[in-house]
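TASK: fixed-backbone design
INPUT:
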């Protein structure tokens, strides 16, 4: 099992990446959400120039807000600063698009996006179409002049849950990123679908295909419970983000199929809470996403329950309990857990985890 951290990137706090390297983490993922955080690539550039070991990448880059050649050149630029230890997490943009009131990129467009992206990151020329105009051939013209690095491979980790996205991950990805609460059966089924996607383009899913899960953790101290104040301070922003996700799907078409059974009552309370928000319904997505994964608005604190933590797969417990949870996830086929604590508590939370969990894993 590898241990990563998903960082809410604030450009003035880029030294967090340096601290994560010192703590012994394997990878640091910079979240990408243009209406919420600093630019992921600007922060990664600072991190790359000031670290030497830790792997760096996006967690995850949003296809819908940049052209495929732009994403390729951005991550290849970071790779020039940290050759061989850069990766690209990429997704359709469930939060980054919905926080603007827009839909994530459609499956067919995402597949084409990754086809172009993968070719460029392998130093190849590829045919490319923009806005239904005539298809043209593109390639990086100066790959050997120090502007970018495509000589050292940049693995592509695709955020995928639905069958079409999973097939795309199998066809053009080097790994997959998923949410933290998936079952063994679901993970195995996802691998089968990705193998189908790889086969469709004449590819065999590699043995070292990377499987990472976004999660959160808190090591309990004696006498603490899952909902002690310190615990909520450290993991509440990530736990409540699942409610944001359920809300997004519900707003789109009334879908509540992803709402965990043990959280049905909590979901009803949260839905009633959002319906009383002062923001007009047409712009309510802005208020719902305030603090998303970065900090917990005080009015949302009451929604952090043991049921929500358990339903979302939070790694909250004693060191031995967390190690057991990690062993179980490793046996399920996961290669990496990447943790996302609240910004204000990130260093303390992650240092505790490194000293009390990673050290004994």
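OUTPUT:
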């Amino acid at each position: 099992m590898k241990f990563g951290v998903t960082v809410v990137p604030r450009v003035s706090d880029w030294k967090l990446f340096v601290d994560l390297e010192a703590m012994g983490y394997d990878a640091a993922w910079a979240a990408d959400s243009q209406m919420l955080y600093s630019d992921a690539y600007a922060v990664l550039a600072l991190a790359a120039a000031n670290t030497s070991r830790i792997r760096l990448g996006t967690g995850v880059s949003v296809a819908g807000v940049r052209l495929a050649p732009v994403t390729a050149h951005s991550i290849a630029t970071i790779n020039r600063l940290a050759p061989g230890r850069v990766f690209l997490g990429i997704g359709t943009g469930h939060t980054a698009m919905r926080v603007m009131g827009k839909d994530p990129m459609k499956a067919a467009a995402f597949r084409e996006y990754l086809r172009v992206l993968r070719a460029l990151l392998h130093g190849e020329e590829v045919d490319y179409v923009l806005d239904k105009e005539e298809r043209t051939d593109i390639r990086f013209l100066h790959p050997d002049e120090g502007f970018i690095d495509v000589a050292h491979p940049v693995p592509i980790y695709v955020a995928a849950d639905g069958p079409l996205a999973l097939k795309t991950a199998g066809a053009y990805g080097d790994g997959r990123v998923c949410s933290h609460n998936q079952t063994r059966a679901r993970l195995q089924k996802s691998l089968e679908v990705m193998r189908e996607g790889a086969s469709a383009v004449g590819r065999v899913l590699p043995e070292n295909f990377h499987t990472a899960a976004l999660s959160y953790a808190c090591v309990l101290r004696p006498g603490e419970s899952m909902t002690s104040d310190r615990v909520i301070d450290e993991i509440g922003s990530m736990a409540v983000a699942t409610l944001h996700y359920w809300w997004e799907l519900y707003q789109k078409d009334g879908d509540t199929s992803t709402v965990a059974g043990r959280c049905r009552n909590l979901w009803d309370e949260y839905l009633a809470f959002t319906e009383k928000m002062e923001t007009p319904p047409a712009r309510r997505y802005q208020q719902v996403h305030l603090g998303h994964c970065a900090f917990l608005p005080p009015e949302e604190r009451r929604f952090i329950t043991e049921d929500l933590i358990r339903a979302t797969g939070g790694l909250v417990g004693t060191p031995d309990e967390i190690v057991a949870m990690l062993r179980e996830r490793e046996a399920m086929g996961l290669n990496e857990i990447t943790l996302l604590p609240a910004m204000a508590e990130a260093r303390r939370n992650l240092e505790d985890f490194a000293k009390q969990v990673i050290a004994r894993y």
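COMMENT: The longest strand covers residues 55-62.
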